[in-house]
Amino acid sequence: MDEEGSINASKIDVAWKYSIMTPDEKYFRCKFCTQQSSGTINRLKQHLAGTHKGIKSCPKVQNEVAEECKKALLKLKNIKIMRKATLEEMRAVATGSGNMDDESGSSPAMGNLPPKARGPLDDFVSAQTRQATLNSKWKKEGGKEVCQRIGRFFFSSGIPFNVANNPYYLSIFERVANYGPGFVTPSMHELRTWILKDEVININKMLDEHKKSWKQYGCSIMSDSWTDGKIIDEVREENVVQIITDNGSNFINAGKRIMETRPHIYWTPYAAHCINLLLEDIGKLKMHQDTLIKAKKVVRFIYGHTWVLDLMRSFTNNRELIRPDVTRFTTAYLTLQSIQKQKQALRSMFSSEAWNKSVWAKKHEEVKTRAIVLFDQKIWPYIAYCVKSVAPLVGVLREVDSEEKSCMGYLYDLIHRAKEKITLNCGYTENKYAPIWKRIDDKWTRQLCRPLHVAGYYLNPQLQFEERFSINFEVKQSLYQCIERMLDYEERFKMDVQLDSYDQFKGDFGCQIAVDSRKVRSPTDWWIRFGGQTPELTKFAIRVLSLTCSSSGCERNWSTFELIHTKKRNRLEHHRLNALVYVRYNTRLRERSIKRKLQKFDPVLVDEVDSDDE
Predict the structure, then answer these.
(1) Which of 61, 318, 386, 478 could form a disulfide with 451 if both were Cys (CB 3.0 to 4.6 A apart)?
(2) Burial (CB count within 10 angstroms: exposed 0-12, middle 13-18, buried 19+), residue 78
(3) Is 515 within 8 Å of 489 (Cβ atoms)?
(4) Which helix (H) or strand (E) holds 269?
(5) Domain of life here (predicted)?
(6) Which of 269, 298, 322 is the last residue of a domain?
(7) Helices (DSSP H) in 426-504: which residue ranges?
(8) Above 60 in pLDDT, residue 388?
């Protein structure tokens, strides 16, 4: 992320560092030629890149800056294309024109609607032919009234505004417009009976396709509570590779019992939770603890008073100090990083004439807060140390908590790279990095590290062929533990022979295209493409590398339950409540699958976990 990154997304753009804002912030000037512009920051990028016909090119811009802006504009263009493609795909599902065409139990009021061609504006207007007899002014007023009534429905029901971006919301009006006059809206009874039942059937059809991949990729069962083992039997034991849960003592004991009674299944703790606990332990170190306490005092004072907050924003160019993130501990350290970046702005604020003339300048507690920023000799070096010693771990936490990629093949390497980066950030001074290392090693070896993590490291082609890759005793031992647990005797024997081809780049593994695509393809795609000559090894590698390290999906499922099971709805029959959770979560799963399918793979950036990782 850009060095000046903040919660204010409009200030993150790469072009801001080449602009000079006018005092009223209505215009900005080019840093190179001082040409004044208004509008969005894109106009400045186009001015610097010199690619837009309607905007004058900067005569003094440096070539590398122009190239940087060209790349930023191209990236924005690709994002727009991707968003449009994603929306079209999701709309196809929402309107029933995709794979889910054969919907059962359609409402008798709706009938079969004919498909129609779509244009670029169809997301916003109906393609229904206009009636020439209607007065356009009357129609405009009628459209305004419709919008007002939709707004009234949103406001009275407390519906978030971003629901209007939901493709299923957009598809409602298209289908109603196509149906024409006389459509009767479904009643509450219809929504909770046949409509919900039909959607469960549609979701089941979608999942039937998804279930076909279980045998190839394997399954992770995620749980935040435990009842019995029926879910394993439902998925089928041969399809389950791991159970992933919290790492509380009750889950550890349950995990041990599973591994004893289910000889082919692993229990794995939730990686993000372990790393979060690690950050909590580091936060108890005296230097970290004292620094966080002082930083919280400054932040609480600034954000607790509107006038002070406005003054701070005027000095930081609207950049925030608070940086909400995955957990409260990452939020604390990212907020420290923001304070560090705004050091000069904060010092200028507390030294300004506006501050000195304010009522806050004379109050005792506020004077103490000002003293922390201006006169505390330790606070700024301590903040710098805390950020440098923890930022690599925050980067790891963000990687493993993401649902975008399977991180089983990366976690082992990410932890070791983070330790190396912390050592570098601490200037190789042992008394600075040793306390952090001690806590990392304790959590990693005692709680988090499992044979699957190490086997994933060995099987990841992005890492296996690097110079720094090391096959030590731990790697070999963990690999063979996984082989013995997950494969039968005949498969183990064949795979052991096939490992030579992988280790020595023989056969398809050594062809030039396989070598060139190691960093381009995802690890699982690479094995599918080039592992045809080693079927047993390839099957094993795909199952390991496809695994998640996070139970975020499970937690979001539980959040879905809490959202639906409100006090107003807690009288729902249990089966209907389950159906609502089932439909909502799996609909979101379908949307995420569509987005993934349309996105180009972006490998985990294991080389970019540094002290400024945001």
Answers:
(1) 478
(2) exposed
(3) no
(4) strand 266-269
(5) Eukaryota
(6) 269
(7) 430-443, 451-459, 461-464, 473-486, 489-503
(8) yes
